[in-house]
Amino acid sequence: MTKLREIYYCEICGNVVEILNEGAPALVCCGVPMEKLEAKTEDASTEKHVPFVEELEGGVMVKVGQNATHPMLENHYIKFIEILRKDKVCRLELKPGDKPEGFFPVKKEEIIEVREWCNLHGLWKS
Ligand SMILES: [Fe+2]
User: Ligand 1 mean position to 117 CA, how many Å?
Assistant: First the structure.
């Protein structure tokens, strides 16, 4: 059973889907069930995937990641960064060549989770 805000991935075509209306029994793409992505929280190598949140005046800056900047190449980049709050989701859509970071005008104490999706290494959260 799908749940609100879950993210699913199709290993065959690369489709990425976020659940906006929960309760469906399953998601199918390319004739097979989609994989529910579980966000990782630790990047053993250089911590370049885990979103780093810095509180600034008027909001927060989210960078991917803290100790090293994630690549933003044509074949390897951060596609989106999301901030989840109680009843709002803020999503910054990125493309190759952009900086893997963004400012969100939200209060840090309202944030439930920050997550990002790398087209090669999947979903990460902090
Ligand atoms: Fe990556």
Answer: 8
